[in-house]
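Per your request, structure below.
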């Protein structure tokens, strides 16, 4: 049914409602375009002003590559919001030919049938060749995509295989090369200026500005996959949360300020594992609330976390608090390590008994874990609580020992909640272990000049680290996903999530 026929079939009220919806949609798109256009102008100003800022050479290099990636990402988002144009597209600038010295691999694309509709056998009259730059560690090669042209002499019909879709439309890099750049930057902690040198030694020095544009484009294309992963995460009843500081460049002030990378992941007891990172400019609790607002409404499960006050608003709104036994234990370990406190040593012995039981139940089912915890851990926890209460009466207020005891007593219901639920872990170490590798490279990939750059890094790292958690090699995962993503129906995008992904050749 055509749009005109469809509209004719509507009554007056439905037409008004449709018009109202279309106007709202246009206004939303226009507002988004204006916002992105403003962001684009700001980025361009920062790009040309970066040389005058008070950064050292490494900081300036990281800032410049971030701005290039942001500019490319904003440009693609604006283009996606623009209505389709009837006029011919502006001709793409001619690229410099790839070096003839690089090895080439021909990939031929021919029509499924070369028999014309009239019954004649078509003749090959030529071909179109597109070259894509590929890379395996240390070696560049060129993929020559050859699309033969076939024509029917009788009815002058030409047939040719369609251009295969790519993650970066009309770009020269293969999905494998883009995956290499992303994994090197966000998993191996190699900023683009270092990758530029590595590629130069392999025979082709790709400018870091070009690498940054690839990163920006890939970030835009991968974002729907990361959002689908977040929605999948919010279907779980138990989540871990943690946050770690990162330095963010402030181009206007010529210095850095503290931002935060928040981490959310499934329980280590689940066979399918996901970790999603979220970059924010502060440690305010509203960032956690915004992340946990899913498509079906606010998430209402058990959140295992430390005692940071930013999570308190969530607990007031219906989220259940799962405490971290390791944080409570750590307070006493610091007393023992620094002062050889005999009281702290006694506390550590009780904590050790609780952890011995956790090692025993780690591989069991939730029901078996609950049964053993109730039989063995509950008596130990009760003894620990009684001991803490008694000792608190003997130590002076304000002392380090009093603070350690108060931490445990003040959070006691949350600390022992795991004993009554076989699906809950005893501590938050699982998410802390996921965020620990991030700390190794944060000066290289989050030493960034924009919120957009931080969120792009968080998105790519979510995919890379979730792939690793599910036993996949990150480069192989990203390469395959970016080859399939351009043709993957939106309704089936969850098939590409790390815990569900299967190689296309399988």
């Amino acid at each position: 049914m055509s749009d005109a026929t469809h509209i004719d079939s509507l009554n007056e009220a439905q037409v008004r409602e449709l018009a109202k919806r279309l106007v709202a949609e246009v206004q939303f798109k226009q507002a988004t375009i204006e916002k992105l256009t403003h962001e684009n102008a700001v980025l361009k100003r920062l790009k040309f002003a970066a040389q005058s800022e008070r950064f050292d050479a490494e900081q300036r290099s990281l800032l410049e590559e971030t701005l290039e990636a942001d500019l490319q990402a904003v440009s693609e988002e604006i283009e996606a919001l623009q209505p389709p144009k009837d006029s011919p597209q502006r001709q793409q600038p001619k690229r410099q030919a790839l070096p003839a010295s690089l090895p080439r691999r021909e990939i031929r694309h021919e029509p499924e049938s070369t028999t014309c509709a009239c019954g004649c056998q078509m003749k090959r009259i030529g071909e179109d060749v597109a070259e894509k730059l590929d890379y395996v560690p240390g070696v560049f090669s060129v993929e020559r995509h050859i699309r033969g042209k076939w024509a029917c002499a009788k009815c002058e019909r030409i047939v040719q295989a369609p251009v295969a879709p790519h993650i970066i439309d009309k770009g020269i890099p293969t999905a494998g090369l883009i995956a290499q750049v992303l994994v090197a930057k966000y998993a191996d902690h190699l900023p683009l200026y270092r990758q530029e040198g590595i590629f130069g030694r392999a025979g082709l020095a790709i400018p870091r500005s070009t690498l940054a544009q690839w990163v920006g484009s890939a970030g835009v294309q991968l974002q729907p996959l990361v959002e689908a992963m977040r929605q999948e995460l919010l279907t779980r009843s138990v989540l871990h949360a943690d946050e770690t500081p990162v330095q963010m460049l402030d181009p206007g002030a010529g210095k850095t300020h503290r931002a935060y990378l928040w981490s959310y992941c499934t329980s280590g007891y689940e066979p399918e594992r996901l970790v999603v990172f979220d970059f924010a400019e502060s440690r305010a609790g509203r960032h956690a609330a915004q992340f946990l607002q899913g498509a079906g409404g606010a998430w209402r499960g058990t959140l295992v976390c430390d005692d940071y006050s930013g999570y308190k608003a969530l607990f007031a709104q219906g989220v259940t608090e799962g405490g971290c036994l390791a944080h409570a234990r750590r307070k006493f370990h610091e007393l023992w390590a620094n002062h050889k406190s005999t009281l702290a040593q006694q506390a550590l012995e009780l904590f050790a008994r609780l952890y011995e039981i956790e090692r025993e139940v780690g591989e069991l089912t939730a029901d078996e874990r609950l049964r053993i915890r109730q039989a063995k851990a509950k008596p130990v926890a009760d003894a620990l609580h009684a001991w803490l209460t008694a000792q608190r009466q003997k130590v002076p207020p304000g002392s380090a020992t009093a603070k350690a005891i108060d931490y445990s007593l003040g959070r006691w219901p949350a600390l022992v909640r795991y004993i009554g639920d076989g699906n809950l872990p005893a501590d938050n170490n699982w998410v802390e272990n996921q965020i620990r590798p991030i700390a190794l490279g944060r000066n290289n990939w989050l030493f960034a000049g924009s919120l957009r750059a931080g969120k792009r890094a968080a998105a790519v790292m979510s995919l890379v680290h979730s792939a690793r958690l599910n036993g996949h090699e990150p480069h192989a995962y990203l390469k395959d996903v970016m080859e399939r993503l351009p043709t993957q129906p939106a309704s089936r995008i969850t098939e590409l999530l790390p815990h569900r992904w299967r190689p296309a050749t399988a």
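Residues 1-5 have pLDDT under 50 and may be disordered.

Regards,
D.
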